[in-house]
Amino acid sequence: MDASVAMYVAQGIHGLAYGMILFLVASGLTLIFGMMGVLNLAHAAFFMLSAYFGYQMLAWTGSFWLALLVAPVLTAVFGILMERFLLKKVHAFGHMGELILTVGVSLIVLDGVKAVWGTESLPLKMPPILEGLVQIGGMQYPIYRLFIIAMALMLLAILSLVLYKTRLGMVVRAAVSDAEMVNALGINVPLVFMCVFGVGTWMAGVAGVAIAPILTVFPGLADQMGMDAFVVVVVGGFGSLGGAFLVSIIGGLISSYGVQFLSQYAAVLMFVFMAVALAIKPMGLFGERE
Amino acid sequence: MNKKTKSLLWIAGALFLLIYPRLFGIYYANIVVTFAVYALFASSLNLLLGFTGLLSFGHAMYFGTGAYGTALALTHIPGLPLIPAVLAGLLASLVLALCIAPLVVRVSGNAFAMMHMAFGQLMFVLALKLRDVTGGEDGIGGFDIPPFSIPGVISLDMTDPILFYYFAMTVIIGSLWLLWFFTKTPFGQIMVAVRDNAKRVDYLGYRVPHTKAVVYVIAGCFAGVAGSIYALFQNLVAAYDAYGILTSFVPVMMTMVGGVGQFFGPIYGAAIFGLIDEFTTRFTDRVELVLGLVLVLVIMYAPYGFAGFITKMRLRWAARKAA
């Protein structure tokens, strides 16, 4: 196999892995938006918070797997607390208040981690099993990125099974389209909302710990990811899971090949992509509502 | 309060601002200039957020473009006088607003906010990457500040902080007055009607997107003036300060804390933020943490901000007097 094909494949794997991480973050964002009509601007901050929790767990216990398991759950607890005690209280003031409240929470989290962990980037070591390269069909692939892709696909499979094949998923989908009606049918909609919020932040948390070994843990972690995730949600269509998946992969590939060919302007490509997509379909690719 | 005491208060306020730098010196004069720049910036945002009901998370675009416009004009055009330099910043923001307005006036709510966040980031990344033009992270600095001169009459050196204070305050208060005047025009009333019930305004025969576009462009221009004064004041424009995401959030927070939808809300908000900044930096580096806490508390317990609080107190006072 010649070198340029190998390069294309390697960049493709990088892009897919980043796209998967992006999907984990964006899916939570888009689910929460679909349910409550609130774009959670603190979502990326939770993503980063989880990476810090993961670092701390690894420092205490020495186990990457424990960190991957516990840190996202801790993050989800924070997310649920925010939903219960803050977001719900300002619901009466309308979406504007909720949106701005999430900005406030995001500022607190972003500055809070600087106060606790400092501003330098902290390494989060991947377990030895996932280090190195694997040989498949005469090509070499980094194991850790394949692991990320597999894990994200698994989560996607579980999520879609629960959403589309179970009674709980039916309730959630019904609540997305008409919360008031579902509430009137005797289902505890606020509880459903809280669970969805928890699951959404949990997925962002998983993404945060998963990406930490590649990028290390630092306060700027949320910036890039937050922006890309918002682009994904906007382009995929607010509230659409399938749209988020498709656009995440496109976005991942764009940024990975963009770095290869147009390194100077790679950071702009996502936004150019968004501008083009929105010019063609103003509601996003799969969006039905504003 | 009757008209006479009101105008007396205004005159007293103006006199106070006039003698203020003589009383407190350069350091406190500079604090007031910073406050005034942000007050104008936040007031221009309030035109969108409070009066038209459009939340923008990318208003820094116009602030930054105004700042870069002025800085670039002063760097590349030798001998450019002061007023045209400010107008260059305004013009840059005007052009940008005219380009973006057709894309955004048909959406509102979350989509409007998010599209602005994206466009704002686009500008930020461009300012970082187009190093040859903008100087990237280091920005453009050290350009000459021209004197304020009317040929044959007067020439004031703008590098003197006290004289600059008078110039900046005149421009900013003039701009604020224009904004205030704008909200009182019949067009300003339509703007408020769009916020309250866009559909009805549409049925009444007014064109909603066109109305939004006009308001949008005006808000952009005044943010540009604020940015331009900021560039002259700092003698430095860099990507993070001009286009950073925090620069977009700050006027939103000021407007919320001061009181959304009231003309003086953002001005109170800018003053409160100035005070918080001035005092917290003496004790801790974690200014953003404090700002976040203040924001959350205000949204939770005083959703109409400081201006709403004042109105409530005044109503209570009036009720007690009547009883």
What topology, given as strand order, has the largest sheet of chain A? 1-2
Which runs of chain B of at least 5 residues are low in confidence (pLDDT < 50)?
none
β-strand amount of chain B: under 5%
Q: For the largest beta sheet of chain B, what order do the strands appear in spatially?
A: 1-4
So what's the overall shape of chain A? globular
Largest sheet of chain A: 2 strands, antiparallel
Mean pLDDT, all residues of chain B: 87
Beta-strand content of chain A: under 5%
Elements of chain B, N to C (H/E): HHHHHHEEEHHHHEHHHHH
**Radius of gyration of chain A using CA atoms only:** 19 Å
Give the helix/strand class of chain A: mainly alpha
Tell me the number of helical segments of chain B per DSSP (H or I, 4 or more residues long). Answer: 15
The whole-number mean of residue pLDDT values of chain A reads: 85
Low-confidence stretches of chain A: none
Task: Please give the count of helices of chain A.
Answer: 11
Helix content bin of chain B: over 70%
- For the termini of chain A, the CA-CA separation is 48 Å
N-to-C CA distance of chain B: 18 Å
Number of strands of chain A: 2
3D structure, described in words:
By secondary structure, chain A is an all-alpha fold. Chain A has a domain at about 15-125 and about 140-220. Chain A is about 75% helix and about 5% strand. In chain A, strands 1-2 form a two-stranded antiparallel ribbon. In chain A, a hairpin with a 2-residue loop joins strand 1 (about 135) and strand 2. The mean pLDDT of chain A is about 85. Chain B is globular and about 65 Å long. Chain B has a domain at about 25-245. Chain B has helices spanning about 5-25, 25-50, 60-75, 80-105, 110-130, 130-135, 160-185, 185-195, 200-205, 210-235, 240-245, 245-260, 265-285, 285-300, 305-320, and strands at about 140, 150, 155, 235. The mean pLDDT of chain B is about 85. Chain B is mostly helical and about 325 residues long.
